[in-house]
Structure formats: C-alpha cells, structure tokens
Amino acid sequence: xxxxxxxxxxxxxxxxxxxxxxxxxxxxxxxxxxxxxxxxxxxxxxxxxxxxxxxxxxxxxxxxxxxxxxxxxxxxxxxxxxxxxxxxxxxxxxxxxxxxxxxxxxxxxxxxxxxxxxxxxxxxxxxxxxxxxxxxxxxxxxxxxxxxxxxxxxxxxxxxxxxxxxxxxxxxxxxxxxxxxxxxxxxxxxxxxxxxxxxxxxxxxxxxxxxxxxxxxxxxxxxxxxxxxxxxxxxxxxxxxxxxxxxxxxxx
Length: 252
Description:
By secondary structure, this protein is of the alpha/beta class.
C-alpha cells in the first residue's frame, strides 16, 4: 500500500513538473530547435540556442538566434494551449482555456526588446533583424496576427520568404563570432540569474502600480491639473474613477 502511494505521489509530481512554465518553455524551445535543424540548410543558416546577452540594466534571454545572409532572425517561442487573443499595440494578450482566462505579456513587445539588444550588440541595421514569435502547443489565434506571429509550421515558411541578401559573408562570420564572445555561458546558473533579474523588474513595476492606486476604490490614480482655486495650474493625483470616486493625492 505504501509503495502504491509513493508511486502515485511520484507520478503526480512528474505531471506537475512537466506542466511548470520552465519545463514547458524548454520543451517548446526544443521543438523549434529541431524544426530549424531539420528544415533549413545548416550551411546557410547558423542557429544559436538560448542566448543570454548583456544589457545596460542586466541581461536579456533570447530563445533562438538564427543567422544567415538573409538577416538575423530573433525567435521568441510560446508553448501554450487554448485560444489566444491579442493585437500588436496591446500591452498584454489573453489566453483562454474553456472558462478560464489569463493574461501574458505581449510577445511582440517582449521580442522588440530582444531585437533592439541584438541590433545594438552586433552593430546591425533595423532591416537586417527580423522579429519572429512562434506559438507551439495546442493553441488557436482568435484575433488577426501580424505575419511575424506564426504557428510552428508557419515559422519555416516565414524565414524562407526572406530571400534578399542583407548580410555579406564577411559580416556573417563577424556576427557569429560576436555572438559567441558576447553571450553568457549557457547554464542553469545563467538562466536562474536572468529569471531573478526579470522577477525583480516585475516586482518593481507591481510596487509602483500599488503605490499609485486609489486607497478607497483601488483604481489607478492619474495625473491631473487644477483648473481653479488656490492651486490653479498645479498638478495632483486624482482617482480615475472620478466622478464616482473623488479621492485626490498631492504629488510628493
């Protein structure tokens, strides 16, 4: 009986580990790596996996960097299921599984930071760098997506559609050498340190938002300008729920 309980516990533990965001991310990245290696000519495309590059504020982690004469492809992988709703200008997108909905960062915005880092670090022009967001898993787009946001089968097609040479052979060799010299050594320690860096950024944003919430109704406070009275022309924080909520705070 005890053996059965232990086996059952281990089984459910393995299931929970597989469902964890870290493992799902690694599995999704592995799928994309295999697709690239099996579908593209390795003499024309050089794949760099799990590249962590330094930034002014810490580091940024890029799932896949694909280097070719047709440009550098910065690929962000999302291993998700359910319905996906989102637009290019929205700060967050929505994942809906049956009746349950959750928000996640707009991957286009996330990958924009990656492409900017790549451009700066490797000395590339904007037209030499392509941002690609690939969704793997049992998911379905429920809103129109830009051509650079694709399912995994569309990724290879998108890459092969870029047929204009943008990088010389000499620059190609230089770019690959720069990536190798600039990237942090791939390891669990590097990944953990990057996760801590990202977590700290999120916590700071959440703290700032919490500090700027209305103490009465919880809605965001917005910057307003007094139109009359002794403080005419001065600025103050007013509840965005006005006129139902009239809480104000001075600017400290």
